[in-house]
Each structure stands twice: as structure tokens, then as C-alpha cells.
From TrEMBL:
UniProt keyword Thylakoid present: no
Provenance organism: Haloarcula rubripromontorii
GO cellular component: plasma membrane
Bilayer topology: Multi-pass membrane protein
Major facilitator superfamily (MFS) profile domain: residues covered: 1-379
UniProt-recorded name of the protein: MFS transporter
GO molecular function term, any single one: transmembrane transporter activity
Amino acid sequence: MLLAVAAGWFLVLGMRFVVPAVLPTIREEFVISNAEAGLAVTVLWLTYAAVQFPAGVLIDRIGERTLLVAAALLSGVGLLGYFFAPVFSLFLIATGAFGFGTGLYGPTRGTALSRTFDAREGTAFGVVMAAGSLGAAVLPAVAAFVTTRYGWRLALASAAPLFMLVAGALWLSVSDRPSDESERSLRQDLRTVLTGFHNRRLVLSVSGKTLMLFAFQAVTAFLTTYLVTVRGISQGTAGALLSVLFVGGALSQTATGRLADRYGTPSVLTAVALVSTVPLVLIPSVRGVVPLAVVSGLIGVRMSVGPLANAYIVDTLPDAAEGTGWGLLRTGFFAISSLGSTAVGLLADQNLFAVAFYGLAALTLLAAGTFVALPRRDRL
């Protein structure tokens, strides 16, 4: 079951970052500004965010198995839409369709792991998120190669059959939770969830997660574009540097999951946020491919926040409406963070890339301040 869920996240996260990886080519073909390119990435994350709450509601009613399979199938179908995107407006529609499909996967994956691996969920989340990081490292590089030979539309759509295979694996391996939908209503679930939202631990952890995700979404959306248009680096090299970022994320997630189980989630979250501030400050001044590769790998360390904060938040939510609460929260922090790429795009059009990176560093430092106030989960 863990392997099937991890394989799905490998594809979901990896294909979400194929668009930023080939964004310079897409900008050139459609003749669009940085702000418009940023809007495309915002659409991807915003549609992903929009379905989080409905997915969470459905988790508590039909279970994880059906939703995970549906998410994989819809994601595969959504990728095929890029074949029919000769103009930018249709490209946005295809992007939104794919975002909608992948949006079903995130919250369902989280509650399935929390329910199945209760004693070692930090490690389980770490393994799955590391698989996603590897997908984000490998798939953009593969897509860049396919784009060079056959075009970016085929590079995106060719992943659809893999999603279908994962759907079959999920159907065979994931068990459903018992459903008591006849005795509960959405209003009751929302009342339970909103009561839980008064929890100070939940407010702090969600706030820190949102700040980190906003900066992550923004920097990954425009790193390749910055390297190509400002630094004069080839798209192939820039894409490789983006891959290094996700390799760093995969390595750090594997390690920090075990550290959190041993030393406590808040301490590790704080350390990750502090370390993640440094590479954002260094991006505008570092020269040379090797130093940039080191900085890219350090940027990836911030991805460790994902599995750690997710496990902490899910564990803090009321058990009676865990899926509903998790989906509602994910809609909130993904919707807010989706604006990161548009914000950076607007600054980039004013030749303020450096200001954008410094601003993201400041938000990361603020996130560290929220994490340091969190209590250990064994003291909840």
C-alpha cells in the first residue's frame, strides 16, 4: 500500500513541476509575459486547492480507496488535454483540469497514511513525500528531453498511461475505512472541525506550513525562468538545476522524518525553516553552475516541512471529521500559496527578481518563528 501511494505521489508531484520546468519554452511559444506565465502556475495550484475540501468531505463518506483511484484516473485524463492547447487560453484550461485531478490525491493520501501507519506516520509521510521529490527531480528532466525531440504537449500527455497503472495498484492495495455517513452530516462535521480550529497548535502549524508553501511554490515556478532570462543559462542546464532542488528535497525528507520521530516535530520544523532562509538570500549573488547547484539543493531542504507539518496537523485534527478538516485546511493554504508565482511574475516584469527572492526569505524566517512555538506532539 505504501509503495502504491508513493508511486502515485511520484507522478502527481513530478508532473506538477514539469510545467515550471518547461515554462521558458511555453512563454516563447505563446509569447506571454512573466506575469502571465506565473498565472498559469497559479491556475495549476489554485484548482488543486479548490478540490481539497470536497475531497476531505468525501474521505469521511466513501473512504480513501475510491478517491485515490479516481484521483489517479482523472489526473491521467487531465494530462491528455494538453494535446488540445494550441493557444494560451486552452493551455490554462488544460492546466486547470490537471490541477483538479491531482487535487483529489493530496488529502486522501494524507489520511490514508495517518490511519494505516499511526505509530510511525512521520516515517511513512517521509517516504511518500520523498517519492514525490524524486518524481519532481526525474520527470521534469525527462520531460525536457521529450520536449526537445517531440514537443512539450507530448511530454506532458505521455505520463497519462502511468497514472492508469497506479490507479490499478491503488485499487488492489488500499483498504477503505468504515463509513457512517447515514449518522453524520456535513454540518456536524464542519461544527466539529471549526471547534478544533480554535486550537493554538493548529493555528501555528497551519500558518507556518502556509508561509513555507507560498515561498516554495513561488521559487520553483520561476527558478528556471530566472536562470535562463537573467543569468543566461541554457534551459537544459536550468532544468537540471531544478532537478537538483528536488533531489535535495528527497534526501532531506527521508532524514528529517526519522529525526522528527526521535527528537520531535517542532524542533525539526524550526531547523528546516532556518536553514531554508539562507539559499533564497544567496540566489541573486551566487555565480557559477556548481555553486548554483549547491544553492538549489539547499532550497530543496524546505520540502521537509511538507511531511512533518502534514503529520502534525492531521494528528491535531478532531478524529470525528479528520478528512473534512484536512481537506478544508489544504484548500486554504494551497489557495493562498498559489498566488506566489503570480506575485513573483509581477516583480520579475519590473526587473525585481532579487527583491522577490529576498521577500521569500523573509517569509521563510517568519515561518520559523511560528514553528518554534509549537509543542511536541507527545505533549499534546
